[in-house]
From TrEMBL:
Keyword line: Cytoplasm, GTP-binding, Magnesium, Metal-binding, Nucleotide-binding
UniProt cross-references to Pfam families, sorted A to Z: GTP-bdg_M (PF16360), GTP-bdg_N (PF13167), MMR_HSR1 (PF01926)
Gene coding for it: hflX
Function: GTPase that associates with the 50S ribosomal subunit and may have a role during protein synthesis or ribosome biogenesis.
Binding-site positions, Mg(2+): 199, 219
Domain Hflx-type G per the UniProt entry, residue ranges: 186-362
Similarity remark: Belongs to the TRAFAC class OBG-HflX-like GTPase superfamily. HflX GTPase family.
Species for this entry: Thermococcus barophilus (strain DSM 11836 / MP)
Cellular compartments per GO CC: cytoplasm
Positions annotated to bind GTP: 192-199, 217-221, 238-241, 306-309, 341-343
Quaternary structure and interacting proteins, as annotated: Monomer. Associates with the 50S ribosomal subunit.
Protein's recorded name: GTPase HflX
InterPro entries tied to this protein: G_HFLX_dom, GTP-bd, GTP-bd_M, GTPase_HflX, GTPase_HflX_N, GTPase_HflX_N_sf, P-loop_NTPase, Small_GTP-bd
Subcellular location: Cytoplasm
Record GO terms (molecular function): GTP binding; GTPase activity; metal ion binding; ribosome binding
């Protein structure tokens, strides 16, 4: 498939050309040309009429399969441009959905992609109906007016059915999540811009070899694995990558996947530290915007600067400071900023930050545990180490242990025949 890319930069904000080209390649397109323009949005064509004629001549010469806009097009603009160019027209978000379709493997991911596609098509179908009523040729998938009306009904029916199926999947996941919490797991979510190295980090933490490619949106299926932080059991979940100005219809469609971020105890926000500061800043702010929309900024957030092996220590430290300063300016509380190399398994800073973050969670409180049976002391200590932190041990007729443990795990300790009482202490 061959394509001509079109980018309209706002006078106040430029679109990242390299990222757009990477999206095109990730979707499998051969890029014939990229046409750029700097101007305010034209209401009819998005780009200026003169630039549209320039693209028309280019399309007649190069004969692309599609002309793809980096800007989001209104349904009216898409129809107007297609009418002029007589070539298939899509925008950045339809391009992203094409990539999603290729990468979705699980039932949930396929349903989410289908829902997003239907949500995208809905306003286009409405515009086709409006034009049909005005006497214009609808030009939507070669359908006549009656067929378009029927297709609109089908879209609404299918969307309702998919939402019910996704809700069932969400409910099943919620049951599993509660079970995991009941047995003392800490839930950590990997979040961040697409292609920052989240899947590689998941592999490094869990010591697995899940495929991780240097491509955009390689992860659409939710993947959860376990690892330990100083004997504490942790589950880490990889989530779909973020991108600038993620539209509401994609956020809605992937709600059940993105919910993993909102339900997590700790968020690891992954960025590629080897990129220029301007790119890191753009992606960091885009990620914060999505986390704010998900109402997830109240959780401990550890910013993980990945790929430290591709730059210098001085550069890494400068960017750490800049991230903290930028977060402060935006009124966002960041628990810590650490640097790692997931590829080379250099994760020491991250493990130390996770240890500190775990003990700040609301689910942890300090208790005094009294063990009267000497034969059970080692068993109790092993269990406490897996669900909390031992602060002090006093041996005697009865062993007294001061520990910081998960409140939900008290039942597991009482089954061992120990006495437990709340003993408040400020560790923070």
């Amino acid at each position: 498939m061959k394509a001509i890319g079109v980018i309209r930069h706002s006078p106040r904000k430029r679109i990242n050309k390299a990222e757009f080209e990477e999206l095109l390649r990730s979707a499998g397109y051969e890029v014939l040309a990229i046409v750029e323009q700097v101007r305010e949005e034209h209401p009819k064509y998005n780009i200026g009429p003169g630039k549209l004629q320039e693209i028309k001549k280019l399309a007649e010469e190069l004969k692309p399969d599609k002309v793809i806009f980096a800007n989001q097009l209104t349904p009216s603009q898409a129809f107007n441009i297609a009418k002029e160019l007589r070539v298939d027209i899509i925008d950045k978000w339809q391009l992203v959905l094409e990539i999603f379709e290729k990468r979705a493997h699980s039932k949930e991911a396929k349903l989410q992609v289908e829902l997003a596609n239907l949500r995208y098509e809905l306003p286009l179908v409405r515009e086709a109906i409006r034009r049909a009523k005005m006497g214009e040729q609808p030009g939507f998938k070669g359908m006549g007016e009656y067929q378009i009306h029927q297709y609109l009904k089908h879209i609404r029916y299918r969307m309702g059915k998919i939402r019910k199926e996704l809700e069932r999947i969400r409910e099943d996941r919620e049951v599993k999540r509660k079970r995991r919490e009941e047995v003392g797991f800490i839930i950590v979510a990997l979040a961040g811009y697409t292609n920052a190295g989240k899947s590689t980090l998941l592999n490094a933490l869990a010591r697995e070899e899940i495929p991780a490619k240097d491509q955009m949106f390689t992860t659409l299926d939710t993947t959860t694995r376990r690892f330990k932080v100083n004997q504490k059991r942790v589950l880490v979940t990889d989530t779909v990558g973020f991108i600038d100005d993620l539209p509401p219809f994609i956020v809605e469609a992937f709600h059940s996947t993105l919910e993993e971020i909102t339900k997590a105890d700790i968020i690891l926000l992954v960025l590629d530290v080897s990129e220029p500061w301007s790119e890191i800043k753009r992606k960091f702010l885009a990620s914060l915007k999505i986390l704010r929309e998900l109402k997830a900024l109240d959780k401990p957030i550890i910013v993980v600067l990945n790929k430290q092996d591709l730059t210098t220590n001085v550069d890494v430290e400068d960017k750490k400071g800049a991230i903290k300063e930028l977060a402060d300016k935006r009124g966002v509380v960041i628990f810590d900023v650490v640097s790692i190399s997931a590829k080379l398994n250099r994760l020491e800073e991250l493990y130390r930050a996770l240890e500190r973050a775990i003990l700040t969670l609301p689910k942890y409180k300090s208790f005094e545990i009294v063990v009267k049976e000497k034969g059970k002391v080692s068993q109790v200590i092993a269990l406490i180490n897996s669900i909390g932190e031992i602060l002090d041990i006093e041996y005697g007729e009865a062993t007294k242990i001061l520990a910081y443990i998960q409140v939900g795990m008290i039942k597991s300790l009482t089954k061992l025949g120990v006495e437990i009482k709340y003993s408040p202490i400020d560790l923070k």
